[in-house]
What does this fold into?
Amino acid sequence: MSAEAKPPLLSYSRAAFEALVVGFGGKPFHANIVRDSVLTKSLFDYEQMTALPKNVRARLAAEAPVFAGREVTRSSARDETTKLLIEFPRTNDKDATVETVHMPSLYSNPDAAEGDQEKGATLCVSTQVGCPVGCPFCASGQLGLSRNLEAHEILEQYVRGAALGKLGRSVVMGMGEPLLNYKNLSVALGVVHDEMGMGARKITVSTVGFPDRLRKLAPLRPRFQLAISLHSPDQDQRDVLVPAMKGVPIDDILAAGDDWFEKTGREITYEYVLLGRENDTEGHARRLGEKLRGRRCTVNLIPFNPVRESPFRRPDTADVDLFRGALERARVVATVRWSRGVESDAACGQLRIQKLENR
Ligand code: SAH
Ligand code: SF4
It folds into this structure.
């Protein structure tokens, strides 16, 4: 945040915000009304919070803007998926725009029945501006890390997302590696859970799976669902596909996953981006099956979304079917997630790259 910017409402804890409102001549319950309006009613204009005295509204409007960021673009795909590009204050003159994606529930869960739609949309949120992990198939990895998002910047994505339509669940699968900004993420998720009312089971955090960090996190609240990005059963190949994890044995990651399951009772999802003719052969599927056999988990197969200037290609549909078949024969449950966002702006991180290139 630049020195002259006023701290946004979302950056205050409950107690600190109450003190602010009281300092402006309001009562503690006025602070609750404001938080509730913003966090659960998508009401962002202080003037409309008529239960508050006029002078308190005016002071808040002058001193505590609701958001730190600015919506730069909004793009919609044919299936009603909406991508927000949000620009946060620059630090050290580095761009700080991130993507947040709002998906109606039938999109995010193809198995959902029609009636499930009213349970709400899935929101995909970012935790960092860019990402330091450097996976060569990922748009966020191509630009490296600019900075971590503040807790209130992560929360802002939820609050803006809820304004696009009721949220049923969220996936922390946007830009960035959540475990490298976990402190801020956990503050934001605390508010999402406690004040926005999203159950811990409805929050999925996706990570490349740093074993030591996972072991430390397992007992913490909220007890979100965990997804670990694996991408290969072979150490050499994973070292190339997930550069920042080079040398961290796949077996250590799986063991940390087992510990997580034991401590939390929550089953893990392993994510696997299918890169055409790279990691999508039946041999890969067989070896993956051997590694995961006997573990209570699900594999999410994500066919690669083409990223500009990436050497990878989308897998053939027939190969995807063979891959899943081989996993099933090893008694490993697998689902395929064909992303439908492809025709608009494709995978996470790409909207930001386009924006930076158009400057
Ligand atoms: N950094 C975390 C979370 C963000 S990425 C992680 O890597 O898990 C969320 C998921 O999207 C990961 O499984 C990632 O591998 C996948 N992904 C990234 N770029 C992709 C692309 N171009 N096509 C398909 N999936 C992609
Ligand atoms: Fe970072 Fe995840 Fe992209 Fe890898 S896939 S570069 S960890 S955001």
Observations:
- The pocket of iron/sulfur cluster (ligand 2) is lined by residues 131, 133-135, 138, 140-141, 175-177, 208 (CB under 6 Å).
